[in-house]
Specification:
The protein starts with a strand and ends in a 28-residue tail after the last helix. The longest helix has 25 residues, at 318-342. It is built from 20 helices and 14 strands. The strands form five sheets. Strands 1-8-7-4 form a four-stranded antiparallel sheet. Helix 7 (227-244) crosses helix 10 (297-313) and helix 19 (492-503) packs across helix 20 (532-546). With 574 residues, the chain is α+β, with helices and mostly antiparallel strands. The protein has a single domain, classed as Glycosyltransferase (Alpha/alpha barrel). The chain binds alpha-D-glucopyranose. Alpha-D-glucopyranose is lined by residues 133, 144, 148, 150-151, 285, 287. The site of alpha-D-glucopyranose has 7 residues, from helix 5. InterPro entries: 6-hairpin_glycosidase_sf, 6hp_glycosidase-like_sf, Glyco_hydro_100. Invertase that cleaves sucrose into glucose and fructose.
């Protein structure tokens, strides 16, 4: 744990020039008429003046055309302004308490969720800078009393959607200052660009002083640096910029530098033969040994998304230009690699099943020398006739066929997945609803590792026993990612079903961190209560479903230059 003793003067309030003016407001009637594809075609009224090499403008137009501030209750936050945006299929919405509600009445747990989210706010020298991971009052706090970068993302999105961008700006600047600390684990110095996994505000009642402590992996269980933190930081910076129209934050020289430092870490040349990013186990949301070392899908999808966001945010000055060129090249190679080698569907599965091995030369079909015998039994039943997904990992002679929720949703949001692949992922979720959603959304991965596999892969981790925690547990936070993916693919009815399941239990169960069991029926064995990202994840999902224009904050449209392997029919409107 690193502690700052002084000099952490904040940058708050600089250039806080929010520009979501009246011109961006649509009337409710307009909102009601639109479906998502139409929203995408609306001209942008507010402009972020930046040269973009990626084709990401129209999603920007979407978020700028319809403001998040349609209507709002005082401090419980959001009102269901766009309840009528229903995209066709309709399941009548009922509250968790079985009371019929008028379309403009927020779900009863929305107010409670906002109150719980506000209770989790962490202040530093008088300003809100983040949200605590869990407000659990149990003794075993571990590090849940800290502000985690990845955990703060759904909180940040909730605040942005609710028209409260200041805390997000404070967080972005504060974590940027932490990045500039000298980071050492034992005698080894970490890369300059590493962002912390988490930080904490320390109060000194005697000196009446506050200082920050940050963890870059040196205190974390397993001592792994968080590879995802830097990516989430860039993604959040774009979400802030997009939602507020305020480019001045991203344009600050220190923000530009912070981005370049993160990018240097992952764009550096080495011995790699793949464009994917090599990492240690436990360097992302799954932060314990779970066999996610190598090239895990979560990191690759976040890497892709962060690269695309950086492309939008980087200034094309002397320093920025070099990065832009490297990013564009990497994106091309990365999307090709992921779309070709990580993708599995019935046909691909059958091809692997019939693979020959020991093929030498560039004409090899089985490029990574995967042994068909390594195909796990479960996948033959799990694979639907329609549908597919990005598998967990691909490296020499090793394919991890497990389904990971976060990576697949981010692949959809970032357009790492082609439109066909995105649709196929949604088809899979629909046809494997019981396995992936069950009674509580959403399985972090599927299936669970059991007996021998559990022993070897997790190292006998008692927290990660089968169908618990990271090993096939159900995490409500993933609801916001699912909802965003559903809206992007034009299938909000899937999100609606999942949200209703969550609404029937989350408040009653005091917002658990995760649920256990094949169907996610039981509150997790060691699950925290009042886990902030469960609360914020629900709110973001709810707000996005009620006003799909929020999607632009977290989604990027397909980049036509990336030439997907399969072209979609003309009906695709992105
Ligand atoms: C757990 C999760 C991790 C999260 C942290 C704080 O360790 O695995 O993803 O950031 O809790 O909530």
């Amino acid at each position: 744990m690193f502690a700052a003793q002084s000099g952490d003067a904040s940058h708050h309030g600089q250039n806080g020039n929010l520009s979501t003016g009246d011109a961006t407001h649509s009337t409710l009637a307009e909102v009601e008429e639109l479906d998502f594809s139409k929203l995408l075609e609306k001209p942008r009224l507010l402009n972020i003046e930046r040269q973009r090499s990626c084709d990401e403008r129209s999603l920007h137009e979407l978020s700028m055309t319809i403001s998040p501030h349609i209507s709002r209750t005082e401090n419980i936050g959001y009102r269901l302004a766009a309840e009528h945006l229903d995209f066709g299929q309709h399941s009548p919405r009922r509250s968790g308490f079985n009371t019929p509600r008028s379309p403009f009445e927020p779900h009863p747990i929305v107010g409670e969720a906002w109150e719980a989210l506000r209770r989790s706010l962490v202040h530093f020298r008088g300003q809100p800078v983040g949200t605590i991971a869990a407000l659990d009052t149990s003794d075993e706090k571990l590090n849940y009393d800290q502000v985690f970068v990845r955990d703060f993302v759904p909180s940040a999105l909730a605040f942005l959607m609710n028209g409260e961008p200041e805390i997000v700006k404070n967080f972005i600047l504060k974590t940027l200052r932490l990045q500039s600390w000298e980071k050492k684990i034992d005698r080894f110095q970490l890369g300059e660009g590493v962002m912390p996994a988490s930080f904490k505000v320390l109060h000194d009642p005697i000196r009446n002083n506050e200082t920050l402590m940050a963890d870059f992996g040196e205190s974390a269980i397993g001592r792994v640096a968080p590879v995802d933190s830097g990516f989430w930081w860039i993604i959040l910076l774009r979400a802030y910029t997009k939602s507020t129209g305020d480019t001045s934050l991203a344009d600050l020289p220190e923000c530009q530098k912070g981005m370049r430092l993160i990018l240097s870490l992952c764009l550096s040349e080495g011995f790699d033969t793949f464009p994917t990013l090599l990492c240690a186990d436990g360097c992302c949301m799954i932060d314990r040994r779970m066999g996610v070392y190598g090239y895990p899908i979560e990191i690759q999808a976040l890497f892709f998304m962060a690269l695309r966001c950086a492309l939008v945010l980087l200034k094309q000055d002397v320093e920025g230009k070099e990065f832009v060129e490297r990013i564009v090249k990497r994106l091309h190679a990365l999307s090709f690699h992921m779309r070709s080698y990580f993708w599995i569907d019935l046909k691909q599965l059958n091809d692997i099943y019939r693979y020959k091995t020991e093929e030498y030369s560039h004409t090899a079909l089985n490029k990574f020398n995967v042994m068909p015998d390594s195909l796990p039994e479960w996948i033959f039943d799990f694979m639907p006739t329609r549908g597919g997904y990005f598998i967990g990992n691909v490296s020499p002679a090793r394919m991890d066929f497990r389904w990971f929720c976060l990576g697949n949703c981010v692949a959809i949001l970032s357009s790492l997945a082609t439109p066909e692949q995105s649709m196929a992922i949604m088809d899979l979720i629909e046809s494997r609803w019981e396995e992936l959603v069950g009674e509580m959304p959403l399985k972090v991965c599927y299936p669970a590792l059991e007996s021998h596999d559990w022993r070897i892969v997790t190292g006998c981790d008692p927290k990660n026993t089968r169908w618990s925690y990271h090993n096939g547990g159900s995490w409500p936070v993933l609801l916001w990612l699912l909802t965003a993916a559903c809206i992007k693919t034009g299938r909000p009815q899937i999100a609606r079903r999942a949200i209703e399941l969550a609404e029937s239990r989350l408040l009653k169960d005091s917002w658990p961190e995760y649920y256990d069991g094949k169907l996610g029926r039981y509150i997790g064995k060691q699950s925290r209560k009042f886990q902030t990202w469960s609360i914020a994840g629900y709110l973001v999902a709810r707000m996005m479903l009620d006003d799909p224009s929020h999607l632009g904050m977290v989604a990027l449209e397909e980049d036509k230059q990336m030439k997907p392997l399969i072209r979609r029919s003309n009906s695709w409107t992105f």
